[in-house]
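Schema walk-through. Below, the input block comes first and the output block second. Nothing else is stored per chain. Lengths vary across the set, and this one has 386 residues.
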Amino acid sequence: RGVAGSPRWSPDGKRIYYYEATEQTASMATGGDPKMGTTQITSIDVSDGTMTQHSTGDGSRRWPQPLANGIIAYLATDEQGKTSLAGLKDGAVAAGPKGDLRSPSWSSDGKTVVYAKLIPQPAFEVLPGYTRQPDFRLTRLASGAAFPAASPKTGQMLVSGFLSLTTMNPDGSGRKELLAEKDSLLLSPAWSPDGKRIAFSKGIYFRQPNHPTAQIGIMDADGSNVQYSGVPNTNSGFPTWSPDGKQIAYSQDGHLVVWDLATNNRRKLTPPGGQRDNFPQWSPKGDWIAFSSDRDNPEDFKLFLIRPNGTGLRRLTNVSGDSHCAWSPDGEWLVFASARMGFKDESALSESPQPYGQLFIVRKDGSGLRQLTDNKWEAGTPFWVR
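--- output ---
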């Protein structure tokens, strides 16, 4: 019958209540899409297996709980993704408090409910992260920041706020916004090897319809002298510098390009095709460029290595869902985000839209795979500081 989740016993212990959905609608339920994220409340008699569907129509209903007064309480999500407590009895729905609510649990008499509430932060946070490897220390960005990068000269951090680029000290202090946009994403900033310039992505990314254009930007480290460069009518982004600072590799319309800054010449590192080659990362040693690609099978992303001259292409990982890699400072290891561990929670309850939840490291020869994180949150776009 599809996906079933959040089971709760009836007060008399004779039935189990749960939400039911298809795999697709379960993954869309968190966003509250009224049609694509529809779930239904169902119960099953534990003595004979008889099933009863209690709700009908479109809508996202999660965390159902039967109460002694005959009401089935649950969390409803509207098409804007906003949540509210609700009750269902004899086909009639009664709405309760609204907000960014999660994990409700009602008292047996239905008069009291305890729940978690998401409280938006005014700015992103720099927090310690847990790792299962004692010889590693993780620092995580929370509340709307990604693509961290450390200056090779000063150690100053640079992060994307998706619509802005900000520098800060490693502990999050001393923040300075370098660049901001209203309608274009600013992603994947990268320091030049001498720490004097910053390359970044500007545009619309992530499989948007109608082939939106995007380009590579370069600016001075203080945010001045912003210049954009790219082939017209292409979707270009995710730059990475060569160790000598003379070239930049980036993704352009699903293949990789190397740009010579002195001559302005661009050459194809990987040939155009049906694949999506993305997130290139130039090794500090200069010997390899790592990237993610679904060239073996559509939507089946793995990590690959290629020489900067376009030779020696080889697959580094063999498990689906590997992406967002970064080199260790010595050029011997890669850290990357992976979906190989799957969702750590029911997909309809997950705060992550995709199961790229865990960080791993691997040697550039494919050996020494180790898992760094183990939690239900999405970890991505890692950067290896030292």
